[in-house]
Design brief:
- With 237 residues, the chain is an alpha+beta fold.
- The protein contains 7 helices and 14 strands.
- 22% of the residues lie in helices and 27% in strands.
- The model has no long low-confidence stretch (mean pLDDT 94).
- It binds uracil (URA).
- Uracil (URA) binds next to helix 6.
Amino acid sequence: MRLDKLLSDMGYGSRREVKIVLKRQQVKVNGVFPKSASIHVDPEVDEVLVNGERVVYKPLVYLMMNKPAGVISATEDKRDQTVIDLVDEAFSYYDLHPVGRLDKDTVGLLILTNDGKLSHELLSPKKHVPKTYYAKIDGIVTEEDVNAFDEGINVNDEYTTLPAQLKILKSGELSEIEVTIYEGKYHQVKRMFIARGKEVVYLKRLAMGQLQLDETLEEGMSRELTEEELDLLQNRE
Ligand code: URA
């Protein structure tokens, strides 16, 4: 594979950034500074060093999962099945982890990756990455709820959430809504509704940042993100 692709896959930056690293003579291939970013290397055979450290080829992998109910968002668990248990064997080599957590009974979009930098950015409380959910609510959701969400909800007198956008899809004894939140606190959506005297009975994540759940992906299934989807996730601003 091309040297710039290898380094870029391994998280040393975009192809353009990798070119700069090469220009600065921070990279050696089999003991010499490569003349071009486009030379071909075999990562299993050739010795590639960045700042004197061997590059062990383990590309970054990004999966989208449609998480089913009943499994937990963790890498391992003594009792329950985890989302990692559901991933195809072919990915077992990559040390994947879920980006954040969905409750055991929550379904929908979950990203799995071995890119610690990206998951850190997506989860950073400072970045306010939007997350959109569809939910069924036991109780009549009203415009007052919409306004209250818009102001931020005081949860259990513990904290007030950031303003959230609530959209009523159907109002009745069993309401249907979409909500976008900008934090990822424990049981956040459920607790916001409890604070309004209502109960979430079904919760599904539809989007994270600009990335939407592929609705053709069956619950329990996962697939690699396309390049366009990865761009959407990375260029969140
Ligand atoms: N909010 C919740 O209450 N649960 C989730 O799984 C995600 C957001």
